[in-house]
Amino acid sequence: MVLLARIRQRQGHDYEALRLVTKALGFRQKILGNQLKTCDSLHQVAELLRKRGDLASTVNLLNECVTISESLAEGEGQQARALYKLSLVLREQGRTEQSKVALGKAASLRRKLQGGAEVPEHESEAEAEREYDGLNLWMLW
Q1: Which parts of the chain register pLDDT below 70?
Q2: Rg of the chain over CA atoms, in angstroms?
Q3: In sequence order, which residues have a C-beta less than 8 Å from that of residue 110 and are 6 or more positions away?
Q4: What pLDDT does 2 receive?
Q5: Among 4, 25, 86, 102, which is most exposed with the fewest C-beta within 10 angstroms?
């Protein structure tokens, strides 16, 4: 279901992708509880809701992902990715200070996970997104 949602999203069928990934999120929450796969689905739903302009729900889902990933030993990659996305959404909402805090936390985790490498100051949003997505070392279908 998650893979099909990703395919439908890439094809531009966001409504169908949202329906599928929301269903997958419900299953994951019920069966797995607070695990990385649940965070992955939260992130995917948040991304689709952001595209629809539902920024408040996006913030809530990303905060939930941060909370879950903080509690998992192997969750730092998910946490960094969620914090980065959260910083973007908070900036869109005009919440500049909160955005800077989230971005700072994301960058700190990224440096740690990438062996202390500095985060480029003038990195494009697309480049940064690829870097943060790459912090998740496995596919979470």
Answers
A1: 137-141
A2: 14
A3: 80, 84, 119, 131, 132, 135
A4: 87
A5: 4
> Is the pTM above the cut of 0.70?
yes
Q: What angle do CA 47, 107, 118 make, to 5 degrees?
A: 135
**CA dist., res. 37 & res. 65, Å (int):** 10
Q: What is the C-alpha to C-alpha distance for residues 6 and 17, in angstroms, rounded to an integer?
A: 7
Place of tokens 């200070």: 97
Rounded distance between C-alpha atoms, residue 110 and residue 114, angstroms: 6
Interacting residues of 129 by C-beta distance below 8 A, sequence separation 6+: 84
Q: At a CB cut-off of 8 Å and minimum separation 6, what does 64 contact?
A: 42
- The pLDDT assigned to 63 comes to 98
Query: Which whole-number Å values give the CA distances from 21 to 28, 41, 138, in the listed order?
Result: 10, 7, 18
